[in-house]
Amino acid sequence: MESNALQPGVGERITGESALGVTLLVDVEQIGIVEVRSEPGGVAPPLHLHARHAECFFVLEGELTVRLEDRELRASAGTWVHVPPEVVHTFGVTGGSPAHFLDIHVPSSGFGDFARGLQAARDEDELQKVRAAFDQQPAPEYATGDPSLVALRRVGGEEGETMAGQSDSRRATLLLDMDELTVTEFFYGPGERGATPHVHYHHADGFLVLEGELTIPFRNGPLRASAGTLVVIPPEVVHSFDNDGEENALFYNLHMPASGFGDFMRGRNPDFDQHEPPADGGADPASVVAVRLSG
Fold it and tell me: In this structure, are 146 and 205 located in the same domain?
């Protein structure tokens, strides 16, 4: 019988009892992620910045508008947005229908506790304490971050850097290549193999599956990540990834921090933090986060 100790779970509901609301999906040192479903015109945070981490968004449905000091960026479904540290911004759902998006903080910087604290606070004093404990500051009179460094990338081959070695059954497009995070869109046809078993010692690896199914083998058995599954693999956990299914797989691969993954994909970083499995088998895969998105 096939051993499969790891199965996708569900996130931690922060707000909302209906289809709308906020769910904490990942809360680890390298990355924090909430899933948001919201109507247009909902409450938006005030203009703010993060001094020591970046904030990113991936829009799954609807429209999200990211407001900067000098302009607004409208992100429709299938768009990634990266806001570097020190850049003043806020965001809100716009358009004529509800939006479904991921709000991502890299590194996490205590984002999980921040999300919980905002909901649990009973008065303005408690809210101020929650905000003070997190790396989020009100917009200063003179900000140092350059808003021109904000990146917006649409998926599906429209934008990004196409990697070499493409075919009808295999495609890789580097969408975001920042210090805090890389995001690469992968298309794998049935039977396509990914990297052989390996380990990262100094950064985390992640997968967001949108279509089909991705098999991610661990030492205690494979995880079958079907469409709508998010997987975050901490450092020192041996893993690989393949499309063992009969359908095409479309997924996003995240490295946090980037650790030079973009140049590794370009063939220019032979010292990238990717290594053969250690003799002791690496860290316990129980530390892997695997969670299903809502809906």
Answer: no
Looking at the structure of the chain, the number of domains it has is 2
Whether residues 276 and 171 share a domain: the answer is: yes
Assigned domain for 287 exists: yes
Q: Are residues 17 and 144 in the same domain?
A: yes
Q: Which amino acid is at 23?
A: T
> Domain containing 162: what range?
156-292
pTM: 0.95
Domain assignment present for 3? no
Q: Which of 138, 153, 168 is a domain's end point? A: 153
Query: What pLDDT, in 10s, does the model give residues 157-193?
Result: 889 999 988 899 999 999 999 999 999 999 999 999 9
